[in-house]
Protein 1
Amino acid sequence: MTVKETDIVEDALLQEGLKKYRKLLRRINDEIWEHPEIRFVEHRAHDLLTKVLEEHQFKVTRNYILETGFRAEFSPESGKYASLGPNVCFICEYDALPIVGHACGHNLIAESGIAMALLTQHVMTECPSRYPGKITVIGSPGEEGGGGKIIMIEAFNDVDVAMMLHPSNKGILHTESICSSRIFAAYSGKRPEETAHYFPSLDRMLPGSESDAAVAAYNAIQVLRAEMPHQWRIGAVIKKIDHSLGLEITYRTLHGADMSVLCARIVKCLEAGGAAAGCQLDWRFTDPYLNMWPNICLGSTVYSYLKRPEILFEYGLNKEFNALLSTDMGNVSHLVPSIHPMYYIDTPTSLHHPDFAKQANTPEAENRMLDCAQAAAHTALKLLRDPNELLRVPVRHNGQLRRKKRPQKYTLRRIRARGIAQESTHRYNK
């Protein structure tokens, strides 16, 4: 059978599988959309997705690494051919945003992960010996601010390629993203209420107060903004941190290597605020979301199998676009060849807006997602049946790594070498 004939047969089987599972997939979408759960408490979604996979002969590990994480594996004929081919991974996200629900479309991401898995499985079972290897579904909770995939990064150690599909108000095939992390800084010193009775008529913060330290640090960060490269970003807000007054700071860079540099400069601003006001500083930071490195080979293969690519992806094969967003899928892409295409769901509304949540539950949005899921499943089948295609993917991926500044391990090692490990505490005594 020629490659073209194989593609035709696979396409027919994928259409058959889509017809078979269409109602089930819609039920998954509706259930998750109607019952939004924020990061790390997605118990209903976790139970729903794992139950569906168990019912379809996947070997499921519930509460995998995280309480609402899971891992599901399938290889036909009881894993007879599992070790003879690649491990293709599909990723589900299912956490919602506070207040606005699924305004990032994670209901569609969860459905697409299951759709890719079931469609690929449907074809694999028709001729097991033709598709050696296995497929894995990783349930990744807490993407919205929790960095679930960073915590679960070891889950991808035995994965050969990883795929996730994301809805968007722009169609971006080769999605790039930026690095992001947060610093939580708290000051301890004289509190205004401790000295207010001496100056009852003064409605201001006295020297040595936590607020003075926070304001001084905030002003120093404002100066840093003016001096730093224009590709870097800092957002800071003064608020209560750990029952003290302090700052929550979000900082972003294009490349992982720059994160440690910017973090160190922000910490100096925080220390200056504490020194000026005579306050003690306690701070910690979250593990960074690294920039997404889309695998061009995988993304282009998915694009070639789409029925209406020009509608789904405005920024197609030869168009680069950095979405200027951050995702923990970036950390996965530094470990294994990965794709994170963002398909257009026919809305001008940006992500995290209430209107986007409404659009993410429409039949048209689901139809577009299923078009992408079918193309991604076709890509997975091509990798499983053609070892030469699999060999080309890592080579191109490594080529991307060489063109970038730093791989993930170097970035994290550099951060720790500078004494800025996660949960580090620095004190500036009065």
Protein 2
Amino acid sequence: MAFNLFIAYDLLPPGQNYEAVHNAIKSLGRWHQFQYSFWYVSTQHTPAEAYAIVLAVMDSRDKLAVINAESGIVSNWDHPPIDAINAIWFQP
């Protein structure tokens, strides 16, 4: 079963290993980066598994949210990436 997940994080000093966090998120499956610390991922991993994978490369003070989504609406963006998201969301 595919899960549509939104992942958000705050990396707090010291450390802030963005590359490791980005690579962990990308390893989950097809992805789109909405903002620097806000991602969409289509994955076979459960939300709890995805959380554990990303959390494993974070420092103890960092913050992480993994949200399972079935649908959503994005507004007030100059150029919303609707086509990019739909290409991932609806791919079998």
